[in-house]
């Protein structure tokens, strides 16, 4: 009774927070509940029935195994529960989504009782989450002449699990809710500082937008009970920054439909819109939940009588409203005409939201069911020896005769599965591709584990070359939340087959390395496709896509992903980089120059940035590809020279070997396998058998951007522009300013060097600058705190070997200690150097934060409101993003430096230099 009583106590505690009972995933608790159901005189029997029926998580959770077994007993008459008839037991099994429930249904369907077998078969025909063990049983039974097995396979071959679903409604009525003006980051929908609660869906839902917004949504629902609430980013893009499944889960929780009456707090079918559409990676997450994302285009650029753009005094295009979507506006989505209406007035064509593939996702309640359904139909047809009828929309295959391929088109063509043999595919094609490398991070990992359980997956797909579970987002503070979540996550992922950053068995030293940095090292083929549970999954080798926790789970379970081949924008460079500039300044200037070249239009948004860097090794090139997430690109590809790629692969081999030496490889020796593949790739390049990936000379691009290095005359800073009169212009990454804009007068309260945007070279720059300051002034004094968080332990080890870490230790007032990690987040900072544990630190904002209202100068990527720093009552917090030398000098001075101070401070410093490749030719 102790477990049940503990659960009741937890329920009372949650009730005080306005929460319902937490869904049950443990076998021990549910076993206790079942014992109380069997005891007809038990005082807790009625509550136990409710918990069993409505509050046990499905899939492969331990609770699901216990529930399925008890339902089998009821169906076979071995247990009698008046409130759960055998027919109701079958219904409950039908909502359990695979795993133990499928095993039970197969037991019953292939059993000796004909009536029970038929009922089990009827339920099985509606299920899609079957794995090899399940399909092997069906195949074996069919081969042995089992009529029920044949009947099930015939149903699967016809894809009746899909065709018999209700059709998508022709008209969907919505009522609008403006969630914010300007770009809406997923931090607004699922704040990073609440990451610990993401797997507790009801609790996490409390943090979406604001309590006031939640009440407003409820009021709209009460006023319009027959309509769905559509969340809108007015004058902006919805869901920038990350895919964040928890953000979509929250939107669905507040505005969607319940997926099953027997599964609490799992909703689907959210509807979202944005003046500038939906961020591509966020839109993928919307598809996972069978939702709808609409590019509203309700604000357009104003033109004069001659058709010329009208610009404001800042030179930016003036926008005018084409139609209103103000909160409370009732609109109609017509899925047949694929138009948006206000009453009888047609507002806009929304056919991009209702492609044949998206219509299937909506009908099936999400993309998973379609992915698994296609595999199941193919299996059944092959087993029966019949041609599978065309049920699903065929893959969209676009091919232009005589047109060459961009780099991403080449990668997709190599990795595509299920396409027409021999057909060359170009951008716009919609394909399934094999995934080579997968990454899961620690604040979304618990949801990925839940998704794997819900789709009944138990082991990583053999298609995947390597997969890594990071500990970086919770690295700063080993608090009670981290202690409760991380070991459980690491054990699950380790058992599933991933390389884990923190070993659940304590065999090797726990590592908290930044996920993107590790993925950048373990990607050993520039032809690879990488899927990672973070928006900054942007590798300098291969093509990488940041994804929601569900897409990561799907990639881990199936080794596949489905997506359109995106268009590409080619970025090349000309001129010479000035000696006192850092490559980070080139990165920021690329965005600034692109916007200027295209009159304010972000041609990168939703596309691949094919960047011809060539001469930078993987660490340095990653600074560019990483930033492409803030450019709103779908992904990026780095075109490299042969020699540079070989050098990058040798560095990667060394770092993978260190992981092996620390005992991080698993039984399948995945890490050793990656080194073998790297050696093979190096040999191919050296022999000329397969040179480094390059696009074809006659490839077609959406646009071409040429970055002029000559005009980059001073450090560039991405500014959140917190006081812009136009709120839609605040907290975007498009305001790039030169250092001189601040006149050497802007106060800096805290500096941060860390996150995925820095590499070993940045740490060496820091050490060199401190030595220079000491030589010039006799000592190093900080006028603002400087927080330093190296991305990986490998980098720390390399710095120690090269003598730089000793320099940093000499000037620091705090150094992380893995034997005594911090148990609470820092709330106050002194004017000194802090050497923090490798990981995301301030950039994530879920543990460490700057003081409210601070102006922070950081190397990180996030300048969203409240992420690195929150507002105070007196002042807005600001997160300005710049290069390492600017951050260092700003903390020493306590303000932004002048250009003269800056150039003097970096004299003789080995900054990250860049010279465009003269050997890199398209072929």
Automatic annotation (TrEMBL):
Instruction: Give every Aconitase B swivel domain span.
Output: 176-405
Top-level class of the enzyme under EC nomenclature: lyase
- All copies of the Aconitase B HEAT-like domain together span 6-162
May I ask which residue range the UniProt record assigns to the signal sequence? Answer: none
Which keywords does UniProt give here?
A: Iron, Iron-sulfur, Lyase, Metal-binding
Please give the InterPro entries that the UniProt record associates with this protein. Answer: Acnase/IPM_dHydase_lsu_aba_1/3, Acoase/IPM_deHydtase_lsu_aba, Aconitase/3IPM_dehydase_swvl, Aconitase/IPM_isomerase, Aconitase_4Fe-4S_dom, Aconitase_B_HEAT-like_dom, Aconitase_B_HEAT-like_dom_sf, Aconitase_B_swivel
Q: Which residues form the Aconitase/3-isopropylmalate dehydratase large subunit alpha/beta/alpha domain?
A: 410-894
Protein name, per record: Bifunctional aconitate hydratase 2/2-methylisocitrate dehydratase
Which organism is this protein's natural source? Flavobacterium flavipallidum
């Amino acid at each position: 009774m102790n477990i049940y009583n503990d659960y009741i106590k937890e329920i009372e505690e949650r009730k005080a927070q306005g929460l319902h009972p937490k869904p049950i995933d443990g076998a021990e608790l549910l076993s206790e509940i079942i014992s109380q159901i069997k005891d007809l005189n038990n005082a807790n029997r009625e509550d136990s029935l409710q918990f069993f029926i409505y509050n046990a998580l499905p899939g492969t959770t331990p609770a699901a195994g216990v529930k399925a077994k008890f339902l089998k007993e009821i169906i076979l008459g071995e247990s009698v529960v008046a409130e759960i008839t055998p027919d109701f037991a079958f219904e409950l099994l039908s909502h359990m989504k695979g795993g133990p429930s499928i095993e039970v249904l197969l037991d019953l369907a292939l059993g000796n009782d004909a009536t029970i077998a038929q009922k089990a078969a009827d339920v099985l025909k509606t299920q899609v989450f079957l794995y090899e063990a399940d399909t092997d049983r069906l195949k074996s039974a069919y081969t042995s002449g089992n009529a029920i097995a044949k009947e099930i396979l015939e149903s699967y071959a016809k894809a009746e699990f899909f065709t018999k679903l209700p059709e998508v409604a022709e008209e969907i009525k919505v009522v609008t809710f403006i969630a914010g003006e300007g770009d809406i980051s997923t931090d607004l929908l699922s704040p990073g500082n609440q990451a610990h609660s993401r797997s507790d869906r009801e609790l996490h839902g409390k943090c979406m937008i604001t309590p006031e917004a939640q009440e407003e949504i409820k009021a709209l629902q009460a006023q319009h009970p027959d309509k769905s609430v559509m969340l809108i980013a007015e004058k902006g893009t919805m869901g920038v920054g990350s895919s964040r499944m928890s953000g979509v889960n929250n939107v669905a929780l507040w505005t969607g439909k319940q997926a099953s009456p027997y599964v609490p707090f799992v909703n689907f079918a959210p509807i979202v819109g944005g003046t500038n559409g939906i961020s591509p990676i966020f839109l993928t997450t919307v598809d996972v939940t069978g939702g709808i994302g609409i590019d509203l285009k309700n604000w357009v650029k104003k033109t004069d009588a001659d058709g010329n753009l009208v610009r404001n005094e800042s030179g930016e295009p003036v926008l005018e409203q084409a139609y209103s979507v103000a909160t409370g506006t009732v609109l109609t989505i017509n899925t047949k005409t694929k138009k948006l209406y206000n009453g009888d007035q047609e507002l806009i064509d929304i056919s991009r939201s209702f492609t044949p593939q998206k219509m299937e996702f909506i009908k099936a309640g999400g993309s998973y069911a379609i992915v698994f359904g296609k595999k199941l139909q193919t299996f059944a047809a092959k087993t029966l020896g019949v041609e599978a009828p065309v049920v699903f929309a065929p893959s969209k295959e676009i091919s232009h005769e005589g047109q060459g391929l961009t780099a991403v088109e080449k990668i997709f063509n190599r990795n595509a599965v299920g396409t027409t043999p021999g057909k060359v595919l170009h951008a716009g094609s919609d394909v399934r591709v094999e995934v080579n490398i997968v990454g899961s991070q620690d604040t979304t990992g618990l949801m990925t584990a839940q998704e794997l359980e819900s789709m009944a997956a138990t082991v990583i797909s053999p298609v995947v070359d390597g997969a890594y579970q990071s500990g970086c987002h919770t690295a700063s503070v080993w608090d009670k939340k981290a202690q409760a979540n991380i070991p459980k996550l690491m054990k699950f992922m380790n058992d599933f087959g991933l390389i884990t950053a923190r070993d659940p068995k304590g065999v090797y030293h726990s590592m908290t390395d930044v996920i993107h940095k590790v993925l950048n090292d373990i990607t050993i083929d520039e032809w690879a496709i990488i899927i990672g549970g973070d928006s900054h999954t942007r590798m300098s080798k291969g093509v990488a896509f940041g994804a929601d926790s569900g897409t990561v789970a799907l990639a881990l379970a199936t080794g596949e992903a489905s997506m359109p081949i995106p268009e590409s924008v080619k970025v090349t460079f000309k001129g010479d980089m000035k000696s006192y500039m850092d490559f980070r300044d080139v990165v920021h200037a690329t965005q600034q120059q692109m916007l200027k070249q295209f009159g304010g239009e972000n041609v990168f948004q939703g596309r691949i940035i094919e960047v011809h860097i060539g001469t930078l090794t993987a660490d340095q090139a990653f600074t560019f590809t990483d930033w492409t997430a803030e450019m709103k690109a779908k992904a990026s590809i780095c075109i490299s020279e042969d020699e540079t790629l070989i050098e990058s692969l040798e560095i990667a081999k060394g770092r993978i070997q260190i992981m092996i030496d620390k005992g991080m490889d698993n039984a399948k020796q995945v890490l050793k396998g990656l080194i073998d593949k790297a050696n093979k790739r190096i040999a191919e390049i050296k022999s000329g058998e397969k040179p480094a990936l390059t696009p074809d000379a006659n490839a077609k691009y959406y646009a071409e951007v040429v970055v002029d290095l000559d005009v980059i005359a001073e450090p560039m800073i991405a500014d959140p522009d917190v006081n812009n009169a136009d709120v839609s212009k605040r907290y975007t990454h498009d305001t790039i300013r030169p250092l001189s804009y601040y006149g050497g007068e802007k106060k800096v309260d805290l500096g941060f060097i860390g996150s995925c945007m820095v590499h070993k070279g940045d740490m060496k720059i820091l050490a060199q600058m401190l030595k220079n300051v000491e030589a010039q002034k006799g000592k190093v004094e900080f006028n603002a705190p400087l927080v330093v968080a190296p991305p990986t332990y490998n980098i720390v080890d390399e710095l120690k070997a090269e003598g730089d870490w000793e320099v940093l230790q000499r000037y620091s007032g705090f150094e992380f200690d893995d034997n005594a990690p911090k148990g609470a987040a820092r709330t106050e900072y002194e004017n000194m150097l802090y050497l923090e544990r490798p990981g995301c630190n301030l950039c994530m904002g879920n543990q460490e934060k700057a003081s409210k209202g601070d102006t922070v100068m950081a190397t990180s990527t996030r300048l969203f409101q409240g992420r690195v720093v929150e507002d105070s009552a007196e002042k807005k917090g600001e997160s300005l993003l710049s290069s390492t030398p600017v951050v260092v000098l700003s903390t020493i001075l306590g303000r932004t430096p002048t250009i003269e101070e800056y150039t003097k401070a970096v004299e003789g410093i080995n900054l990250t230099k860049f010279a465009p490749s003269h050997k890199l030719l398209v072929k």
